[in-house]
Amino acid sequence: MVRPLVFGNGQLLINIDASLNMRDLYFPYVGQLNHIGGHFCSFGIWADGRFSWCHDARWEKQISYKPDTLVGEVLMRNRGMQLEVLINDAVHFTDNIYIKKMVIRSLAFHNREVRVFFTHDFSIDESEVGDTAVYNPELSAVYHYKRNRYFLTNGRAGGERIYEFTTGVKRFGGAEGTWRDAEDGKLANNPIAQGSVDSTISFRLRLPAHGEGTVYYWLVVAKNYVEMKKLDAYVVDRTPARLIERVESFWRTWVNKQVMDFAHLPQKVTDLYKRSLLVIRTHIDRNTGAIIAASDSDILHFNRDHYNYMWPRDGALIASVAIKIGYEEMVKQFFYFCENALTDRGFLLHKYNPDGSVGSSWHAWVENGRPQLPIQEDETALVICALWDYYEHHRDLNFVQFCYRGFIKPAADFLAGYLDNDLGLPLPSYDLWEERRGIFTYTAATVFAALQAAGRFAEIMGEEEELFRYQEAAQKVWQGIIDHLYDEESRRFIRGFKVRADGSYDKDYTLESSCYALFAFDVLPADDERVVRTMQAIEDGLWVKTGVGGIARYTDDWYLQKSKDLANVPGNPWIICTLWLAKWHIAKAKKTEDLDKPGQLLEWAANSALGTGVLPEQLHPYTGEPVSVTPLTWSHATFIDVVYDYVKMYRKLT
Prior knowledge:
Helices cover 34% and strands 23% of the residues. It is an alpha+beta fold. The chain has a nine-stranded antiparallel sheet.
C-alpha cells in the first residue's frame, strides 16, 4: 500500500505505485471520484519478439523525483531485453494534463524496432457501467467518456503519432481486457467499445545499435469534448517536452519561495522538508479548500473505506504548519470549507468529502439508550487554533473579521457550553484516533487553546462580554486538566476518562502519545515536572524496542497490529507520534546539545520515508516497511513542523 510518486495540481491527482502502474486518478476533486478505483493503467515494451510489462520483476527500477519538483525521475533496466528507460512524468500545475517522457536506450549491438504500449482501465465516476472508449481519427487519439467526464490519451514517438490502437470489453463475458492483445506486439485497431471497457495504444521507435529514441505520452482530463480537444491541441502546440520543463521550473520556484535556513540539519532532512511541502500541496483541493488525509486507495482492501476525506483535525494541523512557514495561500480556502461545514449548533462533524458533503462515519448519535453528539471535539477546537495562527502570522484583520462571525464565535460558544460542570472538562466525545468515547487529555488541551484564542479574537473585535466568557471557560478547562487528568499516584497525566454504560466515568491510565498536547497547546510549559514525567513515560513505555524504533500511539494499539509482544512492541511505530517526542525535546531545550535527540528523531523519520521522500502513516515494527496509507499528509506536515521548531530553537540558542 504505497504510492511512491504523487502528481497533482489541486484538481487532478494521480498516484503511481512501486511497479510504475497508475493506480489512482482523482477528478474533479482531490481525493473524490477515483476513475481507476482498485485497478490500474499500465505500460509495456515489445522488442525483438519479446514483451514485458512495467510491473514485470525483470525490470530493475530506481524511482525518484527530480529535486525540489513534482516531476518524476525513474530509471528502468531490463538486462534480458537489453533495454534501459529513463522516465520523467508530471501533472501540469494548472491544466489537467498528465505527461510522460520516456527516453528508451537500446543496449543491443543491432538495429531494432521497439514498441511501447499504454493501457487504460478507467471506471469513470467509479463505475464500469456505461463507459465508452473510442478512437477518433480527427484527433488521432483514443478517449474514454461518460456524461461530463472525458479522458483522452495521445502521444508522439520520434515525431510519429499513435502506431496502433484498440478498444474492447474488460472483466465481462470472459474478456480480460485489451492489455492482453498487446502481448504479441500488435493491436487489433478496434475503433469503439461500450459498457465495461478499456483501451490500449502503441508507439513505434526504430533504434540503431546502442541508440536511443523518445516517446511522449499524455493524458488529458476534461468535462466535455470541446475542453478535451483544446487541451490536446495545447499539448501538441506547446510540445510535451516544453510543458514538462515548465512544470519542473514552476514547482522548483514554488517550493523555494520562502528562503529557509536549515541550520546544520543533514541534507536528507532538508530534502524531506521540501518533499513534504510538495506532497501536501497535491492533497489540497484548490476549489473547495479540502485538505485530504491520504489518497492511497489500497486501504480499501482492509476496511472497505479509505482516507480520501477531509478530517477537520488533520486539515487544521496541516493549515497551521503551512501558515507558519509562509504558505498560507494554499490553505486559506480551508477555513471557508470549515465555515460552510459548521452545524447550526457550532460543531464540526467527524469528516467530510472533498466536495463539502458529510463523509462516512462510525460515530453514533445514541449509545446505551442515551443521545450523544457524534463528534471529535478537538476537530472544532483546532480550526479556531489554526485561525489564530493565521492572524498571528499575517495580521489579516479583514479575513479574521469575516471568520469571527461565520466560524469562531459560533464554534467557541459551543466549546464554552459543552463542559462538565463538576469536572470543568469538555463533555465526552470521541478521541483523536476516532476509536473510543470519553474525556481525553488531548481533547481538553485543544479546547483550552481554542477558548484562549477565541478570547483574543473577541478582544480584537471589541466584544468584552464574549472575551470574559471565553476566558472564564478556558480557565475552567485548565483547572479541570490539572485537578482531574493529572494522576498523583502514577505521577503523570492520564489518557482521560472512559464512559461507563451508566454514563459515569472511569480513569483511563493507558499510556498515550497524544498527551504531548499539554505543552504543544500551552496548558503547561514543556519543562514543567508533570509534563516531563508524562513525556518520559511515553518515551520509555511507547518506544518500539526493535531495530526499527519509533513511538507507538498507545499501549496495545490494535489498528493493523503486527505483534502482541507489548513489552517490546506496544504498537506499530507512527511517524507523527515519534515526531511529537522530538517536538517536546526541542521545546524544553536549554542548550544546543539538547537538540541532539530531536535531530536524531528527524533523521529517523527521514530514513523511514520511501526513496522518493514519501512518508507513511506507520511502520512495521520488525521490518520498517510502510503500514497503512502512504503518503499520509499528517506525517508530512508534522515533519515540517518539527524541522521549523528545531531551526527556530537552534537560532535562539546560538
